[in-house]
């Protein structure tokens, strides 16, 4: 794929014959092919660079390249550039829909039970094989800038600057080797500034690079940046049809979760309706309390009238939920617009410098997110909004512009994809598949037909029960194994997953097949877990 192909060989050979006596032709040919061989070594194409842009909790519904109705009111033009110049993956899913385990899977190309990072409470084992380490060993320079969230110190990176834990939106703290610093400004801008600085330093070298540019945004508490404080304040977003879902069509897990906009979303820290009492809380100190006086003044000019108007309305019941939904969307989508603007800065630099000619650009999120569907925010469940994540890839000369892929792909596949395009063998510990054939429009005949999912974090924040499941993109079987409750959905007839039809006699043969496939996938991936086989 990357081998040099000599051009005009016949023309060069004719010139050799014309100007060389018959007796010296063999010597001339030896010299010619020796020269060609040396030239081949000198101009062997450089291995491709990789810029991996990773956000936290970016719902596919909030990316206009996916043509969701919500994004029509909050477009993402710069992210859409990646799709326009490359490929949009329509069925990219995660193995475990929660921040740290997803990041561990990206690094290792392995499921949570293999890499040891099942929940946000675990500490990543940095001694295990990761794709950044393999890149380092094969001549790449590597960098990680932004959110890490894996507790241990990063390994496999020549350069790293990371946020502690979730990080902060305003005047964030960064951990660097041997020190901790506070950077003035807005976190999305700062992460981009640091990334561009690192990229520009690579201009003087021929060494291929791999950059993991990882934003905090749009993670809760969705604090707008200084350039977007008034954005969407005059927009009324259409409510999802199941904003007031009563969960009657599902089991215990959906009914007993703690992630509703109505009850769980906080007026103070989430929606910035600060009262004198709430200003004494720790949440106030880690959000608004981090701002300097100039930042506070700009913030107050927008939010003080919002607070006053809210207090005047004295809302309750469904009207309060509707008001909270609108505030949530205005903040969340404005935070994403800051991401989009900053992705534009990176794309502009790559194009202006010519680096885009030999760089794979990837945009994705650690998982999806609920934007009011089922009345929820957050993630964790295997239902589509949190299970599915956006994935866009651009690679000039290899991915056809404006292409769309609908095969089942996963964050499990990223590591092996990056290794293949760099001609680095993948270790046997990796459990995904390279996406390179799909990127070039050639889906293998034996491409996967099913995906396996497993969520482990219970009891914990948001109270989502442990569960595992399987999907083929249309049918989905979920097992809440500590409750011993099953759910089954046909997304063709119930795309919003409102009613489990697990008990429907008409589905029993299909469910039996899915259970068999689930057991086979668990054997394939080496899942060892009590009470999950049925």
CATH H level of the largest domain: which superfamily? Alkaline Phosphatase, subunit A
Second CATH tier, the architecture of the largest domain:
3-Layer(aba) Sandwich
The number of strands is 16
Mean pLDDT: 92
In brief, what are we looking at here?
The chain has 534 residues and is an alpha/beta fold.
Task: Explain what this protein looks like in three dimensions.
This protein has 534 residues and is of the alpha/beta class. The protein has four domains: 9-42; 49-221 and 332-439, Alkaline Phosphatase, subunit A; 252-326, no CATH class; 454-525, Arylsulfatase, C-terminal domain (2-Layer Sandwich), CATH 3.30.1120. Helix content is 34%, strand content 14%. It contains 16 helices and 16 strands. The protein has helices spanning 9-18, 25-42, 69-72, 77-85, 99-108, 112-115, 131-137, 187-201, 252-256, 282-286, 293-313, 317-353, 384-387, 414-421, 436-439, 508-525; strands at 49-55, 87-89, 92-93, 141-147, 159-163, 173-176, 179-182, 209-214, 359-365, 391-394, 403-405, 409-410, 451-455, 467-471, 475-480, 485-490. The chain has an eight-stranded mixed β-sheet with strand order 5-4-8-1-9-10-2-11, with helices on both faces. Strands 13-14-15-16 form a four-stranded antiparallel β-sheet, covered by helices on one side. β6 (173-176) and β7 form a beta hairpin. α4 (77-85) crosses α12 and α8 (187-201) packs parallel to α12 (317-353). The longest helix has 37 residues, at 317-353. The two termini are 46 Å apart. The model is unreliable at 1-42 and 530-534 (pLDDT under 50).
């Amino acid at each position: 794929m990357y081998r040099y192909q000599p051009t005009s060989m016949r023309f060069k050979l004719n010139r050799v014959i014309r100007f060389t006596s018959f007796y010296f032709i063999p010597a001339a040919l030896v010299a010619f092919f020796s020269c060609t061989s040396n030239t081949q070594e000198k101009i062997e194409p450089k291995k491709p660079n990789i810029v991996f842009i990773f956000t936290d909790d970016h719902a596919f519904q909030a990316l206009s390249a996916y043509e969701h109705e919500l994004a029509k009111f909050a477009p993402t033009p710069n992210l859409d550039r990646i799709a326009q110049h490359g490929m949009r993956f329509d069925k990219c899913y995660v193995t475990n829909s929660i921040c740290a385990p997803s990041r561990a899977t990206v690094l290792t190309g392995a499921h949570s039970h293999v890499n040891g990072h099942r929940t946000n409470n675990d500490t990543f084992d940095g001694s295990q094989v990761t794709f950044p380490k393999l890149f380092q060993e094969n001549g790449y320079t590597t960098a990680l800038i932004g959110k890490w969230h894996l507790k241990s110190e990063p390994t496999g990176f020549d350069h790293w600057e990371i946020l502690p834990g979730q990080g902060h939106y305003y005047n964030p703290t960064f951990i660097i080797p041997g020190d901790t610093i506070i950077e003035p400004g807005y976190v999305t801008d700062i992460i981009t500034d640091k990334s561009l600085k690192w990229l520009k330093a690579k201009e003087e070298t021929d060494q291929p690079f791999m950059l993991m540019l990882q934003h905090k945004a749009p993670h809760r508490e969705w604090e707008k940046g200084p350039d977007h404080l008034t954005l969407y304040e005059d927009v009324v977003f259409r409510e999802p049809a199941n904003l007031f879902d009563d969960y009657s069509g599902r089991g215990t897990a959906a009914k007993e979760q703690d992630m509703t906009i109505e009850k769980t979303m906080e007026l103070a820290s989430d929606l910035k309706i600060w009262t004198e009492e709430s200003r004494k809380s720790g949440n106030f100190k880690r959000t608004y309390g981090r701002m300097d006086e100039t930042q506070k003044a700009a913030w107050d000019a927008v939010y003080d009238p919002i607070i006053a108007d809210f207090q005047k309305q004295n809302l309750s019941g469904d009207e309060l939920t509707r008001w909270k939904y609108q505030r949530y969307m205005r903040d969340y989508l404005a935070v994403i617009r800051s991401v989009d603007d900053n992705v534009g800065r990176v794309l502009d630099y790559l194009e202006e410098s010519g680096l885009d000619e030999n760089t794979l650009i990837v945009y994705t999120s650690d998982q999806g997110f609920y934007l009011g569907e089922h009345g929820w925010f957050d993630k964790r469940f295997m239902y589509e909004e949190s299970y599915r994540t956006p994935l866009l890839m651009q690679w000039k000369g290899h991915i056809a512009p404006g292409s769309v892929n609908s095969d089942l792909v996963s964050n499990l596949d990223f590591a092996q994809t990056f290794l293949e395009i760099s001609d680095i063998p993948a270790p046997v510990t990796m459990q995904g598949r390279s996406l390179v054939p799909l990127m070039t429009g050639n889906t293998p005949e034996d491409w996967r037909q099913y995906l396996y999912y497993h969520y482990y974090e219970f009891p914990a924040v948001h109270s989502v029960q442990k569960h595992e499941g399987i999907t083929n993109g249309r049918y989905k079987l979920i097992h809440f194994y500590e409750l011993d409750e099953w759910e089954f959905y046909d997304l063709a007839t119930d795309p919003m997953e409102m009613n489990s039809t697990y008990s429907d006699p008409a589905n029993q043969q299909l469910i039996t097949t899915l259970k068999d496939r689930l057991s086979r996938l668990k054997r394939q991936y080496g899942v060892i877990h009590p009470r999950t086989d049925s």
